[in-house]
């Protein structure tokens, strides 16, 4: 009986004529990170391979005896690369950490830009408010009207500012400030101003003073024998004359500097 085996090719002429080549299938194996080609047909001379037993001789073909053929691996195994990660978990964690750091850096950048915009807007509002206050103070201090305050005497600073505002608004009337008075009065302490006006001007000036009562720190207004603390006009006793009864001037008393937020009159 004949054994099953791959049959060697006949001898080739030339240099390869004496070297048998066995036909066979090639198998690829990946083990431990190494690529090996197993079972490739490679010529071998059994006597030249030390320590390897030769394959059994095939039966004779005709009068020719077929020599034995030894199959050897065509590629030697390669040891695994120690730098190759067996477990990718650490690499994944490192990538996630970098992504988190990048996201945090972007969030910090956006927050910093938002804070910068808010600070710029606040600075702009403060600058606008300062300009408005400067304009208001300019109008209160007389602006371009050039009203004289020489007859006010040593009144409080906020009283002088309010007097200039009202005086410039209502035709630059004569204004009287510090003066001796009998009885209770705010004039000696520099907290009152008398505006010498006619009736129509006096009506408008008294109304404007009461409209800006909180802004100018006004405690009360006296006009035409009436007094108003901010809650309406109340009649006063007859003091015996036009000036004493405040028919020729509006009396305005102050108790503080006020808020300074003046409205138009």
Summarize the structure in short.
By secondary structure, the chain is an alpha+beta fold. It has four helices and eight strands, in the order E-E-H-H-E-E-H-H-E-E-E-E.
Could you explain how this protein is built, in words?
This protein is α+β, with helices and mostly antiparallel strands. It folds into 3 domains: 1-82, no CATH class; 85-140; 150-254, Muramoyl-pentapeptide Carboxypeptidase, domain 2 (2-Layer Sandwich). Helix content is 31%, strand content 13%. It has helices at 89-140, 157-169, 199-211, 213-216, and strands at residues 27-31, 34-38, 174-176, 192-196, 218-222, 226-228, 233-235, 249-254. The strands form 2 sheets. It has a 6-stranded antiparallel β-sheet with strand order 3-4-8-5-6-7. A two-stranded antiparallel sheet has the order 1-2.
Oligomer: single chain
If you consult CATH, what is the topology of the largest domain?
Answer: Muramoyl-pentapeptide Carboxypeptidase, domain 2
- What would you call the shape? rod-shaped
Model regions low in confidence, pLDDT < 50 over at least 5 residues: 1-31, 33-44, 46-56
Rg: 57 Å
């Amino acid at each position: 009986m004949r054994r099953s085996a791959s049959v060697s090719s006949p001898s080739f002429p030339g240099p390869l004529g004496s070297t048998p080549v066995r036909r066979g299938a090639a198998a690829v194996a990946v083990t431990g990170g190494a690529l090996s080609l197993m079972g490739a047909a490679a010529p071998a001379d059994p006597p030249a391979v030390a320590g390897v037993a030769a394959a059994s001789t095939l039966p004779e073909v005709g009068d020719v005896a077929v020599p034995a053929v030894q199959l050897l691996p065509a590629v030697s195994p390669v040891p695994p690369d120690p730098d190759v990660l067996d477990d990718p978990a650490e690499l994944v964690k490192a990538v996630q950490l970098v992504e988190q750091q990048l996201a945090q850096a972007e969030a910090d950048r956006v927050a910093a830009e938002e804070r910068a915009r808010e600070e710029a807007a606040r600075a702009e509002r403060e600058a606008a408010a300062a300009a408005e206050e400067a304009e208001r103070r300019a109008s209160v201090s007389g602006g371009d009207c050039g009203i004289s305050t020489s007859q006010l005497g040593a009144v409080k600073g906020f009283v002088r500012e309010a007097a200039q505002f009202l005086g410039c608004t209502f035709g630059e009337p004569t204004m009287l400030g510090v003066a001796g008075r009998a009885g209770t009065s705010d004039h000696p302490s520099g907290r009152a101003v008398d505006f010498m006006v006619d009736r129509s001007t006096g009506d408008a000036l008294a109304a404007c003073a009461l409209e800006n009562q909180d802004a100018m720190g006004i405690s009360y207004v006296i006009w035409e024998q009436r007094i108003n603390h901010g809650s309406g006009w109340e009649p006063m006793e007859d003091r015996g004359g036009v000036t004493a009864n405040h028919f020729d001037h509006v009396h305005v008393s102050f108790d503080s500097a006020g808020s300074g937020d003046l409205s138009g009159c």
